[in-house]
Amino acid sequence: AEPAPGAVHVPHWLDADRQHALLTACREWARPPAGLRTVRTPGGGTMTARQVCLGWHWYPYAYARTVVDGDNAPVKPFPAWLDELARNAVADALGPDAVPGDPYDIALINFYDGDARMGMHRDGDERSEAPVVSLSLGDTCVFRFGNTETRTRPYTDVELRSGDLFVFGGPSRLAFHGVPRVLPGTAPAWLGLTGRLNITLRVSGLAA
Ligand code: MD3
Ligand code: FE
């Protein structure tokens, strides 16, 4: 399904084995040092989803190589297999011509409990127009996909389920989006995850 130009939702892209493997990896990455943390915005807000980064550390609103707003540890490396996964995702969703020349080198992994949300925002801290790849695990969420002008209507609400892929390329790369709610207790029982996890894969366009 293509809810907006360049935005493609592929339900059930990850089979059960790949969901398990990705969840196991995310749990390892969540451990300190440079593990899961609460993000505080300059305006004094707190993100309710907790986050861990690979490759480059995101903090509002820039990238660094160390956890400058946490334990100051070096950010964990971005593994080559995640670049492969991202390239396969873009090819499957948008076709081979949409796969970027530069490697994927950032993963932002958000952990949501039942009360967590993400407000409407745009992702503009990367220096690349490469499509963003999003993978969901665990509880279903309501994902709100908006427009490029305002954080309000018009928007489209889409349910993202465990194993779903969403790719944001073209004009949708700069659209406002958010997660107004998570639907607790909807994760597949076999996964063994309470809550929701989202992995976004990005090309930084930043110098190594
Ligand atoms: C559209 N994450 O990490 S995934 C984010 O579910 C983020 O954790 C949400 O928004 C989450 O920035 C939504 C879908 C998503 C991710 C990145 C995008 C949509 C996007 C970047 C550009 C456009
Ligand atoms: Fe985002």
From TrEMBL:
InterPro entries assigned to the protein according to its UniProt record, in alphabetical order: Alkb, AlkB-like, AlkB-like_sf, Oxoglu/Fe-dep_dioxygenase_dom
Cofactors that this protein relies on: Fe(2+)
Q: State the free-text cofactor note.
A: Binds 1 Fe(2+) ion per subunit.
Output the GO biological process annotations, alphabetical, semicolon-separated: oxidative RNA demethylation
Q: Which SUPFAM superfamilies match?
A: Clavaminate synthase-like (SSF51197)
Any GO CC annotation of this UniProt entry = cytoplasm
Q: Quick check: keyword Iron in the entry?
A: yes
Q: Where is the Fe2OG dioxygenase domain?
A: 103-205
Instruction: Supply one GO molecular-function term.
Output: ferrous iron binding
Enumerate the UniProt keywords alphabetically.
Dioxygenase, Iron, Metal-binding, Oxidoreductase
Q: Does the keyword Oxidoreductase apply?
A: yes
Pfam families under this entry?
2OG-FeII_Oxy_2
Matches recorded under PROSITE patterns: FE2OG_OXY
Provide the binding site for Fe cation.
H121, D123, H177
Q: What is the name of this protein?
A: Alpha-ketoglutarate-dependent dioxygenase AlkB
Annotated source species: Streptomyces bauhiniae
